[in-house]
Design goal:
Carbamate kinase, binds uridine-5'-diphosphate, 11 strands, alpha/beta
Length: 236
C-alpha cells in the first residue's frame, strides 16, 4: 500500500537537461518514465509540474528591454517545450500521459481544466502540466504547490540534485548532515533554507501540504517516497 495516493512531482528544467548544458536529455526522460510507471503501478496518481530553467528563467532575463512580464511569459513557454517533450517520451515508453497547459495553447496541448485533470488522473494517466500557474512573478515551485492543492495531492515532491536539505552546503562541507524532517514554519523563516521559493513554502505552511525534497534521479527513490520510506527531507 502506498502512503501517497496522489502526488505532484516538481521537476526542474536543469534536471531534464541531464548530461547536457541545456535542452532535454531524452535518455534521462525515458528512465524517469520507467520510475514513474513503477509508482503508478503501485497505486499513486501522478501530476508533474515541469520547470523551464534549462531554457529561460524570467527573473534572469528581465531587463535590457525585456519586461518582467514578457520574460515570465517566455519562461512559461520554456516549460511548455519541456512538457511536450516529456509527454511524447513518456508515451513512447508506454506510460499513458496527458499534457495540460495553463497558458492558452490549444493547438499543442489540452487546456488545464480542473475536472479534466481529475478525470485523467482517475484513469491512471500521468498529467504533465505546462505553463506553470499561467501567471507571471512566480516560479514553477510556487505553481507546484498551488496545483498540488488544487488537485488534492497528498504531497508535493520536489526533485533536486542534492538528496534533501543539509545543515550546511554538502558540496563544500564534508561533515554536512541531512535534516530528515523540517517543520513548515522553520522552512519559511530560515533564510538559509533556499531549497524552494518562500512563496511556495508559505502556501504549503498555510494549507499543511507536506513537501518532500529528494533525489528523484536515484533508482527507486520515487517508489520509496510514495511508500512513506525515508528519502531526502520532509517538510511538514
Ligand atoms: N514562470 C511563471 N509563472 C509560473 C511558472 C513559471 O512566470 O507559474 C516562469 C518564470 O519566469 C520562471 C520560468 O517560467 O523562471 C521557468 O520556471 P522555473 O524557473 O520555475 O524553472 P526551473 O528552475 O524549475 O527549471
Amino acid at each position: 500500500m502506498v502512503k501517497y495516493k496522489r502526488v505532484l512531482l516538481k521537476l526542474s528544467g536543469e534536471q531534464l537537461a541531464g548530461k547536457f548544458d541545456n535542452g532535454i536529455d531524452p535518455e534521462l526522460a525515458a528512465w524517469l518514465a520507467k520510475e514513474i510507471e513503477k509508482i503508478s503501478a503501485a497505486g499513486t496518481q501522478v501530476v508533474i509540474m515541469v520547470g523551464g530553467g534549462n531554457f529561460v528563467r524570467g527573473a534572469q532575463i528581465a531587463g535590457h528591454g525585456i519586461q518582467r512580464v514578457t520574460a515570465d511569459h517566455m519562461g512559461m513557454l520554456a516549460t511548455m517545450i519541456n512538457a511536450l517533450a516529456l509527454t511524447d517520451i513518456f508515451e513512447d515508453e508506454g506510460v499513458r500521459t496527458r499534457c495540460l497547459s495553463n497558458i492558452f495553447a490549444e493547438q499543442v496541448a489540452e487546456p488545464f481544466v480542473h475536472r479534466l485533470a481529475n478525470k485523467h488522473l482517475q484513469k491512471g494517466r500521468v498529467v504533465i502540466l505546462a505553463g506553470g500557474s499561467g501567471r507571471p512573478y512566480v516560479t514553477t515551485d510556487t505553481a507546484a504547490v498551488v496545483l498540488g492543492l488544487e488537485l488534492g495531492c497528498d504531497g508535493v515532491f520536489k526533485a533536486t540534485k542534492v538528496d534533501g536539505v543539509y545543515n550546511k552546503d554538502p558540496a563544500k562541507h564534508k561533515n554536512a548532515t541531512r535534516l530528515n524532517n523540517i517543520p513548515h514554519q522553520k522552512a519559511v523563516e530560515d533564510i538559509d533554507i533556499k531549497i524552494m521559493d518562500k512563496a511556495a513554502l508559505g502556501l504549503a505552511l498555510e494549507h499543511k501540504m507536506p513537501i518532500i525534497i529528494f533525489d528523484a534521479l536515484k533508482k527507486d527513490n520515487l517508489l520509496k517516497a510514495v511508500s512513506g520510506k525515508p528519502v531526502g527531507t520532509t517538510i511538514h
